[in-house]
Structure to design on (318 residues):
């Protein structure tokens, strides 16, 4: 049986914390009883620089229950960073992690199914919501537009999966080799490789408190996702430059025709042609420079280039 760590990022979750802790402890006991995880499995609450009583509550839970751990970050760094801090800490003392939000919108009832898939050989199991009934119409449509936009930009993400997932220790270890500072986990995890699977659940309403992801943070996350994973926007500029240069030839012909057959102000023809042409050349040049910057960007991220899963070689030690 493997040791499970449940990683829970929390930001101003004082209304939720005790409810969450109780529910998660209950599920841990349940899984221990079913012999799915070892007895020393634990919950790790990560306090992302909360301004309310979140940390005091985590500390008091830790006092009371030996399987509740706490990690306090010195300031509010954001969900993705808090989750990463939790995963990398948990990795050192567990075999497998499950990350889940503090608001229990994700179904803790599927932990068991996730673990079954883990024991069957999956290193990453994604929690995927199959219905979004409880989200507001606005949240649902913007989120779905976001997934579509991401995939059109060539970023591989799992549709309708947020950050509710199981990761084996070796998957987290490989993830820790991604040294980039701009984190967008949903894009990074699929790059790890290994065998993956999904479990499906219905997303519930937040039990208490309100969303810590207002529109501003959601947009920031979307832009982060695109700019950290795709240099397509730069290619779009280059393509647009090309199109405008082509347009300038059409403008050139149109201007010449007007010059010979119509009534035009003196100087209009040459102005028209040069504005279009120079505009196109400038955009194309910016796009080309952008392509190099895009390459530099990819290089400086120093992502691992591959992940070796198995090596069959000479037997050592005999
Ligand atoms: N969260 C965090 N840091 C932040 C914002 C949010 O750690 O700066 C946590 C929050 O406590 C919750 C999770 O990230 O556990 C997801 O946030 P929330 O449920 O508010 O997002 P929503 O479900 O509305 O998208
Ligand atoms: Mg939530």
């Amino acid at each position: 049986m493997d040791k499970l760590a449940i990683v829970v990022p929390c930001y101003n979750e004082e209304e939720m914390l005790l409810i969450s802790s109780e529910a998660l402890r209950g599920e841990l006991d349940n899984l221990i009883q079913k012999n799915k995880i070892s007895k020393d499995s634990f919950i790790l609450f990560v306090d992302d620089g909360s301004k309310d009583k979140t940390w005091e509550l985590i500390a008091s839970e830790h006092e009371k229950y030996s399987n509740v751990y706490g990690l306090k970050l010195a300031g509010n760094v954001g969900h993705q960073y808090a989750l990463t801090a939790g995963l990398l800490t948990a990795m050192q003392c567990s075999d497998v992690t499950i990350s889940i939000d503090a608001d229990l919108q994700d179904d803790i009832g599927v932990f068991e199914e996730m673990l079954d898939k883990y024991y069957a050989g999956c290193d990453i199991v994604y929690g995927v919501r199959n219905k979004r009934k409880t989200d507001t119409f606005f949240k649902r449509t913007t989120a779905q537009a976001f997934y579509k936009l991401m995939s059109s930009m060539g970023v591989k993400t799992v549709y309708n999966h947020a950050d509710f997932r199981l990761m084996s220790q070796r998957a987290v270890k490989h993830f820790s080799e991604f040294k980039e500072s701009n984190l967008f986990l949903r894009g990074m995890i699929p790059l790890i490789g290994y065998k993956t699977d999904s479990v499906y659940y219905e997303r519930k309403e937040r039990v208490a408190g309100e969303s810590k992801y207002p529109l501003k943070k959601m947009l920031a996350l979307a832009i982060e996702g695109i700019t950290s994973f795709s240099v397509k926007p730069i290619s779009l500029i280059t393509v647009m430059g090309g199109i405008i240069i082509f347009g300038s030839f059409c403008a050139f012909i149109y201007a010449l025709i007007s010059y010979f057959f119509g009534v035009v102000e003196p100087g209009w023809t040459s102005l028209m042609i040069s504005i279009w042409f120079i505009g196109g050349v400038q955009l194309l040049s910016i796009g080309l420079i952008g392509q190099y910057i895009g390459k530099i960007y990819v290089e400086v991220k120093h992502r691992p280039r591959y992940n070796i899963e198995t090596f069959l070689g000479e037997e050592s030690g005999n």
